[in-house]
Write a structure and sequence with these properties.
Elements (H helix, E strand, L loop, with lengths): L3 E5 L6 H9 L17 E7 L2 E7 L13 H13 L2 E7 L6 H13 L3 E6 L7 H6 L9 E2 L8 H11 L1
Parallel strand pairs: 1-3, 1-4, 4-5, 5-6
Antiparallel strand pairs: 2-3
Helix pairs in contact: 2-3
The protein binds guanosine-5'-diphosphate and magnesium ion.
Organism: Rhodoblastus acidophilus
Protein name: GTPase Der
Family: Belongs to the TRAFAC class TrmE-Era-EngA-EngB-Septin-like GTPase superfamily. EngA (Der) GTPase family.
Length: 163
């Protein structure tokens, strides 16, 4: 089985960190500055015994301060179009923001399988914010730490169910 998963979400939620962990190489640039990934990029991901193509999306270009620019929207829509399934990433520490809701509405419209990931959820600090994820209308959030590698077994079983 060959399939493609797009990683979607607003800037700085940890999309590139997740991409790097799935691909196992430092292909995507990770930075504290939101939106440092400039283009969509694809890699070969492995999760459990699944191999698939994963697409990392940039948010904003550096220096771009608009919340949801045309370019960002176009890129997100292109990635959604290419994908068989979507990993929608939110920041569990920040909770659901208005920008998350904009992205969530783009994703819902596509009608493709979506897994909601509440990232940065290591420890207890992410729990409250992860609950806000229920509001996004994308199903139950999977608590994840892309940086520390927590939650990937659950992500694997959710992906198996979603496909
Ligand atoms: P992107 O803009 O969505 O691609 O986000 P990045 O992957 O570039 O990450 C943005 C920031 O969040 C960086 O400082 C990362 O180190 C941090 N980050 C990513 N994943 C996690 C995580 O699981 N836990 C914590 N605490 N920080 C994370
Ligand atoms: Mg990035």
């Amino acid at each position: 089985m060959s399939f493609t998963v797009a990683i979607i979400g607003r800037p700085n939620v940890g999309k590139s960190t997740l991409f790097n962990r799935l691909v196992g190489k430092k292909l995507a640039l990770v930075d504290d500055q939101p939106g440092v990934t400039r283009d969509r990029r694809a890699g070969e991901a492995r999760l459990g015994d699944l191999n698939f193509t994963v697409i990392d999306t940039a948010g904003l270009e550096e220096g771009d301060s608009a919340s949801l620019t045309g370019r960002m929207r176009a890129q997100t829509e292109a990635a959604i179009e290419e994908a068989d399934a979507i990993f929608f990433v939110m920041d569990a520490r920040a909770g659901a923001t208005p920008e998350d809701r904009h992205f969530a509405s783009l994703v819902r419209r596509a009608g493709k399988p979506v897994i909601l990931l509440a990232n940065k959820a290591e420890g207890r600090v992410g729990e409250a914010g992860a609950y806000e994820g229920f509001d996004l209308g994308l199903g139950d959030p999977v608590a994840l730490s892309a940086e520390h590698g927590d939650g990937f077994a659950e992500l694997f079983s959710c992906l198996l169910t979603a496909l």
